[in-house]
């Protein structure tokens, strides 16, 4: 799977002992936005989700990484995607594989 991800984390939100990544989206959502927001994120922002989570994990300090908040501003809907240690471990392995594959191509 090849691709390019560009962008910036819009905000890091500290809530109690957790850190959440907030990303604003202006996409159009099909159907009922409340029901389709999470599906849209999973279909269109899988790599961004992983990379932002890994970056925030490194910046989190003593806080636990709670997850990702994708706020769809046209609808006032936020897709909440919690993240646990198993996700971070899987995504770290995924990123290592991506790096290895990229280095093999050069």
Task: Label this structure with key terms.
106 residues; single chain; four-stranded mixed sheet; 4 strands; 44% helix; 26% strand
Question: What's a concise summary of this model?
Answer:
The chain has 106 residues and is α+β, with helices and mostly antiparallel strands.
Give the spatial strand order of the biggest sheet. Answer: 1-2-3-4
Class by helix and strand content? alpha+beta
Number of strands: 4
Mean pLDDT: 92
Helix content: 40-55%
Taken as a percent bin, the fraction of beta residues is 25-35%
Dominant shape: globular
SSE sequence, one letter per element: EEHHEEH
Q: What is the alpha-carbon Rg in Å?
A: 15 Å
Structural features, described:
With 106 residues, the chain is α+β, with helices and mostly antiparallel strands. Helices cover 44% and strands 26% of the residues. The protein contains 3 helices and 4 strands. Strands 1-2-3-4 form a 4-stranded mixed beta sheet. A hairpin with a 2-residue loop joins strand 1 and strand 2. The longest helix is centred in the C-terminal third of the chain and has 21 residues. The relative contact order is 0.19.
SSE blueprint and pairings:
Blueprint: E1 11-15, E2 18-25, H1 33-44, H2 46-59, E3 64-72, E4 77-82, H3 85-105
Parallel strand pairs: 2-3
Antiparallel strand pairs: 1-2, 3-4
């Amino acid at each position: 799977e090849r691709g390019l991800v560009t962008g910036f984390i819009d905000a890091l939100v500290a809530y109690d002992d957790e850190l959440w990544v907030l990303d604003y989206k202006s996409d159009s959502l099909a159907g009922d936005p409340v029901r389709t927001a999470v599906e849209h994120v999973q279909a269109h922002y899988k790599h961004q989700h992983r990379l932002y989570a890994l970056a925030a994990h490194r910046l989190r300090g003593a806080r636990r990484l709670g997850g990702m908040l994708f706020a769809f501003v046209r609808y006032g809907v936020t897709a909440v995607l919690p993240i646990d240690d198993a996700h971070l471990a899987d995504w770290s392995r995924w990123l290592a594989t991506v790096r290895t594959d990229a280095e093999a191509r050069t």
